[in-house]
Amino acid sequence: MREVYFIKQNKEKWLGIEQVIQGKVKKNPDDLSSLYINLINDLSFAQSYYPKSNTTVYLNHLSSQMFQKIYKTKRVEENRLMYFFKTEVPLLVYQYRRYLLYAFLFFILFTAIGVLSGAYDKDFANIILGEEYVNETIENIKKGNAVGVYQSGSTWGSTIGIIFNNIRVGARLYIYGVTGGVGTLYALLSNSVMLGSFQYFFYDYGALKDSARGIWLHGVFEIFAMVVEAMCGLILGASILFPRTFSRFNSFKTGFKDSFKIFLSTIPFTICAGIIEGYVTRHALKMPLVVNLALIITSLAIIGFYYFVYPSVVYKRINTNTNDAVL
Description:
- The protein is mainly α.
- It has 12 helices and no strands.
- It has helices at 3-21, 29-49, 54-73, 80-95, 97-120, 124-129, 131-142, 155-175, 182-204, 208-241, 248-279, 289-326.
- Helix 2 runs antiparallel to helix 3 (54-73), helix 8 packs antiparallel against helix 11 (248-279) and helix 10 runs antiparallel to helix 11.
- The longest helix has 38 residues, at 289-326.
- The protein folds into 2 domains: 3-83; 93-314, no CATH class.
């Protein structure tokens, strides 16, 4: 079948499904499941015969939206907060997973720029990190205490200040998405270049190992959350730039609602990062190396599993249950 005829044959049905997704037309759960299965059949056909077509991209997006609609119509028996973190956020992360990939690729690129800049310009760290901070850190390194900067101030006072600062940085990464994602990328560039030059600075002074033992205790949660927040900004920007068949306003509403939920999921990790930085990082060089590494690896396993692995697990489980219910 020619693609033009395929579109003409199914256009009205797809537009009707858009109306259902937007809440303009009400359907009972059985009708929603029937529409979803029908849509999946169209998607499978398009993937087989028009794999690189915009029609396939459109149907894939529509299927994801429809899937969300179906599951939200089910009665949620568990605690609402538990449902939010166990099911709702993972499904959204799965739906927008390519934006998480984009955010990580930009993060790696921008961090590499920071490393190379520090390597080729010895004054770059002073410009990015501030001369006072650099001089203080050099003195700490000479004393054999690379993480000395984290030992100043009270534990609870430092923790509160760090948490609020990190939430502010994450909010900027997200909200700047209203510029079509350009502001988000700029904010990610600034933070990633700073991280890259920061790490190279310690490498240049022969203290990379000691600094990593301290920095990445809290940095795993903090930096990973920062990348997810950039993902949210990119989702927001894409909803404005690429509304597909939706009106730009309706596309923005959907993008904002979905991205904001993902953004909220980073807050617990940001709070944990602040607590670790305020109470644990200052003791990094005093604890056994094996304990230090165990904490870093455990943190990475937790947040990596939640955003990279668990969404697929939830999607496959829910999708299987939905299809079984229809059959």
